[in-house]
Amino acid sequence: MRTTPTWEFPPRVDADISATATSAISGNGGGCGVSLYAERDMIVDKIAVYVHTTTVAGDLTATIQTVTGSTFAPSGTLYHANATSTVSLLTSDDAVWKEFTFAAPITITAGDTIAFCCNRVSGTFTGSLLITRSYDTKTNIPALFNSATGAMTLNTGRIPVFAVHDTTLGYFPMLGSTSFIGRATQNVASNTTPDEIGIYFTMPYTARCRDIWFTISGFNNTDSIRVRLYDASNNVLFSQTNTFGTSYTVTTAGYHAAIIPNGIVLKKGQSYRATIESLTTGAMTIAYWTVGTGYPNVHPSGGWTQWTERTDAGSWTDSATRHCEMFMRFDQIATNAPAHPRIG
């Protein structure tokens, strides 16, 4: 284990991300894309793009490109000769995933910085095309957009809703957040079904967890909750009961934190649950993100997360189409983990 700058897993997703905004690709050859650092070797055979609105039919091409310059903008050069695929969009292609399959799987080498892009094919469009995007002011992730012919320009924080298919992992979202296509809330109280909710996850690396963070609204200062961490056998590894207004750390971003005094080491490949249980009848509101059907929240490093819930300490129910606004912070990580575990 080595000390690491605070690492968050799952990658933080909160109200500062607008998963339902759109970006227009209005010109011939216009497009959008996102650059990222590959933390692990990947074999990518297809990409999916979430299309919001297509007003006129036309062709769209998805590519994997090399990057250039200090902004890591797409260079226009294919990462591999097979890293291109074109599909035809119909006027009925609104609020749908469009899948682009490459002629042969593309091997991406750990440590490379690459860009996933999609562009309108010149001459095939006369109307507008809207691609759903996330807007992440917390992490300021580099993503790149243009709406006319020419080089893509840097637009920090705007992440097109792409999902990438690895032949081993299956589909995973870009940067942990961008397969989220909507936001909703769940009221939780001691007399509701469920009364305990959270995240069910598998660790991508062995690391020491120091605290569990989450957002809650609508509570009174006398309301109490219990934050717990379970292993795969439902053994309680950590439990902390807190009353709002008396024993909570509240950040300027509206987060609440349950601090684990000595930390707990969570092991790579092992499954855990981090949950919030209401202990009072006053309803509290917890936000979650909806995940595109068929595109579960798997992370490029190999870990994954799901929504989990139960009532009256009964059996757990898990869902791959939800993601609770909840994450953990780690201060030590396995020596064989990447130096900068930035994308999961």
Report on this model:
The chain contains no helices and 28 strands. Strands 2, 4, 8, 10, 13, 14 and 15 form a seven-stranded antiparallel β-sheet that branches. Strands 3, 5, 6, 7, 9, 11 and 12 form a seven-stranded antiparallel β-sheet that branches. A six-stranded antiparallel β-sheet has the order 20-19-23-17-25-26, with no helix packed on it. Helices cover 0% and strands 56% of the residues. The protein folds into two domains: 2-12 and 183-333, PHR domain (Jelly Rolls); 21-176, Jelly Rolls, CATH 2.60.120. By secondary structure, the protein is mostly beta strands. The model is unreliable at 14-20, 136-141, 246-253 and 340-344 (pLDDT under 50). A hairpin with a 4-residue loop joins strand 21 and strand 22 (255-266). The relative contact order is 0.23. The protein starts with a strand and ends in an 11-residue tail after the last strand. The chain is globular. It has strands at residues 2-9, 21-25, 31-37, 42-54, 58-68, 73-78, 84-89, 96-108, 113-120, 129-135, 143-146, 153-154, 158-160, 162-166, 170-173, 180-188, 196-202, 207-215, 224-231, 236-243, 249-250, 255-266, 271-278, 284-291, 304-310, 317-319, 322-324, 326-333.
**Spans with pLDDT under 50 lasting ≥5 residues?**
14-20, 136-141, 246-253, 340-344
Q: The CATH topology of the largest domain, please?
A: Jelly Rolls
Q: What composes the largest sheet? A: 7 strands, antiparallel
Amount of beta strand:
over 45%
Mean pLDDT: 76
CATH H-tier superfamily of the largest domain? PHR domain
